[in-house]
Amino acid sequence: MERIRCPRRRHRLETNKVNMILKIETGQNNPVLRQKAEKVKEITPAIKQLILDMIETVKADPKSIGLAAPQVGHSLQIFVALSTSDVLRTSDVDKVIVLINPVIKKKSFRKEILEEGCLSLPNFSAPVKRSKEIIIQGLNPEGQLIRIKAKELLARVLQHEIDHLNGVLISDKVRPNDKCGMSLLQN
Ligand SMILES: [Zn+2]
To answer: What are phi and psi of 156, to 5 degrees?
Structure first.
């Protein structure tokens, strides 16, 4: 997911020079963005390297706060999200959340509409209605089951990334009477 209203601030995180910045897949009809991603069966060294490269990629773009594997051309159920102070509004800065085979366990009935952007749909943003709080569960890169309770912006980012794993883009979420921004979509 792309940061919309937050200040453009570069994350000052440590970087490992061997990790790569990956090419972002774009376009609302791009097949890899439109299929349901496959479950990860085994966390192999290649999967771990993909995760490191995804973290490198999400950190490289100051607008970016989350990235799902299909967005870098891998149809796998993995995403990374930055839980910076902007997101959590706590001192828990610059932590990276990595979830493999994530499942939403609970969603609040209370919803909120906020403008969202997406790295895979450049120059497009749309108001998207999402639950204010969620509980999500999945594996960390060590294969341990973890559960995250998230609210507000972090809950939104996690729901946005889960959508990517199901082939859903924010352009699908635009209500018929709310076409603002749709003309910016190229394909
Ligand atoms: Zn996105």
So the answer is: -65, -45
Cα 117 to ligand 1 centre (Å): 7
pLDDT (tens digit, 9 = 90+) per residue, 139-174? Answer: 999 999 999 999 988 999 999 999 999 999 999 998
Q: What is the whole-number distance in angstroms between the Cα of residue 33 and the centre of ligand 1?
A: 9
Domains defined along the chain, listed by start: 31-184 (3.90.45.10)
Is 25 an active-site residue?
no
Q: Which residues surround ligand 1, an ion (CB under 5 A)?
A: 1, 118
At residue 10's C-alpha, the angle toward residues 7 and 15, to 5°, is 155
pTM value is 0.84
Q: Pull the structure tokens for residue 36.
A: 């349901």
Residue positions counted in the chain = 187
Distance in Å, CA 131 to ligand 1 centroid: 17
